[in-house]
Amino acid sequence: MRQVLVVDDEPHIRTVLRGYLEAEGFAVSEAADGEAAIRQVRQHAPDLMLLDVMLPGIDGLEVLRRVRTQSDVYVILVTARSEEVDKLVGLGVGADDYVTKPFSPREVAARVKAVLRRDRAAREAAGSVLWFEGLTIDPEAREVRVDGALVNLSALEFDVLTALADSPGRVFSRRQLLERVWGYDFFGDERVVDVHIRSLRARLGDEAANPRLIATVRGVGYKFVGRPA
After folding, report:
1. How far apart are CA 195 and CA 177, in angstroms?
2. I need a labelling partner for 166 at 20 to 30 A (CA). Which of 27, 69, 121, 140 fits?
3. How far does CA 217 lie from the centroid of its chain?
4. 128-160: pLDDT as tens digits
5. Using an 8 Å Cβ cutoff, are 32 and 8 in contact?
6. Helix, strand, or coil here: 170?
7. Residue 10 CA: distances (Å) to CA of 28, 30, 53, 79, 208
8. Which of 72, 18, 65, 70 is nearest to 48 (CA)?
9. CATH code of residue 73
10. Are residues 119 and 8 in the same domain?
11. How far apart are CA 226 and CA 135, in angstroms?
């Protein structure tokens, strides 16, 4: 049974989300503040965290930053208003999706299912090792090496890279990457793709202005330009 951690300082919101998620077959745990959320991720390793941005003490963004140093748990951020999405995307916090309050609990449950279904599909689609100049991608081991050195990618960053590298030279729009990586029923902001591409480039030592691996096709999307080994 997949486990979801609901982090919100409002008890009634946690109760409502717990009810909907348990009805969908998830095991649900709760945390009312950032410190408790970090402890639960460390101790219980949930599959996904629904994380409110506005928390007492440590806010949701700081929780996510700290969690990312120890876990690649999927994270759906919950924001208080739609304008915050622009800020979150600009900060590049690396969440897998965003939900804006007030939200439909049914929609939130659907987003949780979509993210975790993508995780299962990625594992089932694992294939042979991809070899490029200076880059090796092992889908089965979910390992990436740059010039022989192991690179630590989040689960989502790995899936974005693999989706691009599986079809070298093909241009993917943001929507196409969302469909392939996040799932056809992704509900969130398409700019989340830009956030993960930026993070992925940084980890791979790639540059948008002079791409060795991932190129931007202006007005369209992205393509993989790595040379076969």
Report:
1. 13
2. 69
3. 22
4. 889 999 999 998 888 999 999 999 887 778 889
5. yes
6. coil
7. 16, 11, 12, 13, 42
8. 72
9. 3.40.50.2300
10. yes
11. 8
